[in-house]
Amino acid sequence: MILPLTDDLKHFVYEHGADLVGVAPINRLKDAPLNHHPSRFLEDASCVVSMGIRLNKATVNNLPVTRRSYGIQYEVVNAQLNSLAYLVARFLEERGYRAVAIPASEPYDDERFAGDLSHRHVAHAAGLGEFGLSNLLLTPKYGSRIRFVSVITNAPLEASPPFRGHICDECRKCVDACPSRALEANLDKHSWTTGRRIDYEKCNHYMSSVLRGLPCGMCIKACPIGENPHRNP
Question: How many distinct structural domains can be found in the chain?
């Protein structure tokens, strides 16, 4: 039956360190680019499982002083997400279904500034949040202080309810905090459900040249959305 499998899966995901999990039915991702559609990686895909692990508040809130710590945290969380996605894919395969784990960060298409699958769009389709002006997914509890990973599967999982409401207050703090000015691009075309095309070239150039390969995170620090985001534990 669908419900017990979905409940068992979510229990497994939370038990292995996730802070958020949702299920996006494949029809909610029908507008994904052909080369980035889930069916490219699994022909009979029925849904995509989205899982998130939050970032530690103090490390984000004390940027740029904590830049090196933030860089380490970024790598650690990505590694945890990749491990979680592998375990979830194995969980589903052991129950007779097919599943493909999509990496949280690498490999990355440097020309298109895109991964194999947009984890942010999957997370939105799984009902976990909306796109803020930072073009990151905002969740009610963690704001943008969370990273995502996805597992494509043909398992008959119950779809999570779509995200309702509007949580971004359009304060523009993330836009103003961006040192590369990348977030100023296409603001008039921004969508709360699909985001927009920011100036990824400026963003990546700043991190590779100025920060020498370290992640930036200033737009995440600036965002006021989330559970006391600027109060350190």
Answer: 1
